[in-house]
Design a protein that fits this description.
Length: about 325
């Protein structure tokens, strides 16, 4: 299975060093955080009605610990066009360990994404071949991203593109993706030799994906768990205990200890009512959202972190 996936996504996934990515595909240094280039696919001449362009909702950055670092606004991309965004990170020089890209309601087919860190080092790249090889909606594109090296036979490298769409028109399943930057960069050989799909996760909504690519639970949660939040007032049910257990499994949870547990990533965060600190969270029961408080560029902002269809209260 692993060998088949590597073959499906091409030599690009076997090692970035085998492909000379065109220099123009790499963004320049960013003053506030990681800079991201997003390339839309381009159909063959005569198929101009098959637009592979669309619009990006947001680009999100997470640090090496999978902690939320910041976001940028989106953009419109024509077929074959490129969107360049610098993520407004709370600490600009902190490396972006994970990048998440979300689409709007007009579908976009992404051919590749490149990431450059604040310090000028190449963080890594993602291509639509990864989505193609890992069961996502895809289409062919005609523009080369670079060239294979002579020892790989030379020639142009033309990746496929992967579809994202927030309103799921034509049954496009996902609106967002998130990938481990180093997995397809400095660690790409190790990635290809293990599981080339694991360092990328996908989601049906266009908000930031909280999960950590490559380090998710081996048990996928059913949809009823992912759309429900439990708020418990029972003193014997602290969120920290649930989050720190390797065998706990269920919906996200707010405990009487003033903590929130993201059960997908087993990440603990304080409620702002308990600890007024950067990264604390607040629950808006009327809107069914959980927001995270962040200090970005010396400004305090609340960002929607997760959304729920049902909030259940225990012991209240």
């Amino acid at each position: 299975m692993a060998a088949a996936i590597v073959d499906a996504i091409g030599i690009f996934s076997a090692a970035l060093t085998t492909i000379g990515f065109f220099q123009s595909n790499w963004p320049g240094n960013a003053p506030e955080g990681a800079t991201v280039n997003i390339k839309a696919g381009l159909p063959e001449l005569g198929n101009e009605g098959d637009s592979l362009g669309g619009s990006i909702n947001h680009v999100y950055a997470f640090d090496e610990r999978n902690g939320y670092s910041g976001q940028s606004d989106g953009c419109d991309i024509d077929s074959g066009g490129i969107c360049t965004r610098t993520v407004d990170q709370s600490v600009g020089g902190r490396r972006a360990g994970y990048i998440s890209v979300s689409a709007n309601n007009d579908a976009v087919c992404i051919a590749w994404i490149t990431v450059q860190q604040f310090d000028g080092t190449r963080g890594g790249a993602w291509t639509g071949d990864i989505g193609y090889g890992c069961g996502q909606d895809w289409y062919n594109s005609v523009e080369p991203a670079g060239r294979f090296k002579d020892e790989q036979g030379g020639g142009e490298y033309v990746p496929k593109c992967t579809w994202l769409d927030a309103d799921h028109t034509n049954d496009i399943a996902n609106a967002a993706l998130k990938f481990d930057v180093s997995a397809y960069g400095e660690n790409v050989v190790e990635t290809a030799n293990n599981n080339a799909c694991a360092p990328t996760i996908y989601g049906p909504d266009n908000g930031p994906l909280a999960g950590q690519p490559g380090k998710r639970s081996t048990r996928e949660r059913p949809s009823w768990m992912t759309v429900q939040l439990i708020v418990s007032n029972h003193t014997t049910q602290p969120a920290a205990e649930l989050c720190n257990s390797a065998t706990s499994w269920g919906p996200d949870f707010v405990g009487p200890d003033g903590n929130f547990c993201d059960m997908e990533s087993k990440t603990l965060a304080p409620l702002c009512s308990a600890q007024d600190v950067d990264g604390c969270v607040e629950v808006n029961e009327s809107e069914g959202t959980l927001t995270k408080r962040l200090n970005i560029a010396r400004r305090t902002t609340n960002v929607v972190h997760k959304s729920y269809k049902k909030i259940s209260k225990w012991g209240q």
